[in-house]
Amino acid sequence: MIKRQQSDNIPIIKEEALSKIRIAHSTVELEEIYSFYLGRKGILRNFLITIGQFPAAKRPDYARNIHEAIKAIDMAARDKRGQLLLVEIKNKRSSFDITMPGIAVKRGHLHPLTLVERKIEHIFNSMGFGIIEGPEIEDAWHNFDALNIPPDHPARELWDTFWIKSKISGRAGKAPKSKLLLRTHTSPMQIRYMETHQPPFKIIVPGKAYRFEATDASHEFQFNQIEGLMVGEDVSVANFKFVVQAFFEHFFGKEINIRLRASYFPFTEPSFEVDIRCLFCSGRGCSICARSGWLEMGGAGMVHREVFKAVKYDVSRVQGFAFGFGLERLAMMKYKIPDVRLFNSGDIQLSQQF
Ligand code: DAH
């Protein structure tokens, strides 16, 4: 049996609901009020369920009161909903000003080393060079022996090596079995290419190389090189000079002076160090060229006959040049980047400039 006060409460509940609706600030708040009174578990719905338990004589009045309250609250909520929606839509519109400049979509950047590598590939490609890639895990035979750096040769000390434990490689009938390592230069690709191709040809090999050494402003234990190799019946030093000069001029976008300095590499004879006239002081001497007026760009030379023998070429019929340049060094010179470690720092302030 429902208590008497409950039916007396209805007008009070109704007034309370109506005043709450009147001052509601948002449609969200309004819907909360609505469901508190008229929702599936709302107060007035509960009353409806109990009509049947009310004394028969009072039942019609009680029911009418509830229905009236529901109707009044429902109508008030409907009106209020309309008003609040209008305000909310208007507010939303006013925050959308079509005359405001748009927000630029953030786009990714290619890493400066990628840009430089692509540029180099494009230049060599336009001179007819093929672009070859090869394995970073290499065997000692390709990385050293076949390049005329036999075991125990002091020249192996020139390349501080990351050796790979235990695994031994070697293809039947081809290279003898030897230890694995992270290639210390891209030169082993000279061997791999010549093992499977006959001259004449000209290729470049961009790729990563590794050295077991401490990092500083100009050294990283992982870095990139561009290897070059051109072999034919009469490829000469003059051809090399022409090719590197054309390359540097395209790469730096200005006239370049080249100097070849005698040097030593086991896989070339003669060997040179390739210098270019300092880009920053035009040869007068500055801090970047250590006052020498020249910048060292990389090693090169005429392919050693022992290298040709390792790939079973007829040394009386072929000759060619090879070179190896550091990609990071080229990028640093082109864009005046002072520290090689910036390339792998993940600092987008660097890459955003390109
Ligand atoms: N592989 C050498 C290095 O990493 C660079 C080099 C020198 C490559 C002379 C060559 C070359 O092809 O002819 O130190």
Automatic annotation (TrEMBL):
Q: What superkingdom does the record give?
A: Bacteria
Q: Which GO cellular component does the record give, naming just one?
A: cytoplasm
Q: Does the keyword Ligase apply?
A: yes
- EC number from the UniProt entry: 6.1.1.20
In this record, what's one Pfam family?
Phe_tRNA-synt_N
In this chain, Mg(2+) is annotated as bound at 269
**Name this polypeptide is given:** Phenylalanine--tRNA ligase alpha subunit
Q: Which organism is it from?
A: Candidatus Terrybacteria bacterium RIFCSPHIGHO2_01_FULL_43_35
